[in-house]
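Technical note accompanying the year-one report. For the benefit of new consortium partners, we illustrate the data format agreed upon in the data management plan: each record pairs a sequence with a structure-token string. No post-processing was applied to the example shown here.
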Amino acid sequence: MTEVLFIVSFSFYFARALFFVIGAKKGRIKFKDIYIENYPFVSIIVPARDEQENIIMCLESILDSDYPRDKYEIIVVNDRSSDLTEELVSQFTTNHKNIKLLNIRDDSQKIVAGKPGAIDFGINNSKADYILLTDADCKVNKKWISSMVKTFIEKDSDLIAAFTLVKHDSFFDKYQAIEWILMHTMASGGMGLNFPLGCFGNNMAFKKSVYNQLGGYGNIEFSVTEDLALLQSVHKTGGKINYICHRDSTVKTLPLKSLQDYLKQRKRWAIGGKMLGWKATLFVIASLLIWITAVVSFIEGNYYLSIIIMLLKVITDAILVVPTINTVKEKGLFLYLLPSNFLFIIMELILPFLIINKKVVWKGQTFK
């Protein structure tokens, strides 16, 4: 009986992994060496709330882009910061005329609460039809803007999602870096096979015209994962979505330094991911079957089978991310794949308990 359960559970899990591998392969595009004759104007929206430690780093990385500076604007949306974010950006703009600072003083200025309201506020004050989003704690690749524009031109995209890497020094940082790559690979794999499973709002772009046709975030069901909500809305209306995996299109975010902040972020993602409905349930079942098999094998005294099923899970997950790590040129993470994958197993056990309480706290704001 245990052997049958083993075959069923691993077959199910392997099929899930194969689904992601096939889909993710479609995202590993090679940009054509095309000359952009007429550089289109783009607007880059950077929502910021209490980001005095990071915002200048972010802005300097954007200004270091290889894209002509007169062909883009940076809109920093200061969302009621209580630190020196506003003062720092205001001073920085005196030497950089393509940076605009917008201040949100109270919620009455936003059509929806939280980060989506700040993004919407920035979009409504932007000039371009191409909207690029990143966060204040991110550094963008030098070719980030041009790679997004090339994708819009080559693929005629309505929405583009791309990979976010994590700056890593400590083991905890590297664990987060591998986890982000795994989640991106799965999200891009889903999109490659026309299943929108997620994306990350600190590295995405879309046409303003498409956003306006949707009615903006004011007309999209509120979610603590506003990026997924937008992705699903564009997909439902037949928009063309490309999830690209390429070093040029990456941004690098800072790691979370405390376990508490890490768990809060994973809780927010898990609660937002419930929007996926049956798709989320299907993928959760694949992991659940693995766990059931391991536990049943252990209870019946078949310890070797229990160990084998967990090792196969770890190996399968590692195989999934190896091509992506090569593509985004983060080969220094290879040595940390095995221990990180074992920690993923622990996280799978903790996550169900995190989402019992539906309250989400983000940047001093509480959402239910």
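Partners are asked to follow this layout when depositing records. The chain has two domains: 2-24+271-363, 27-268.
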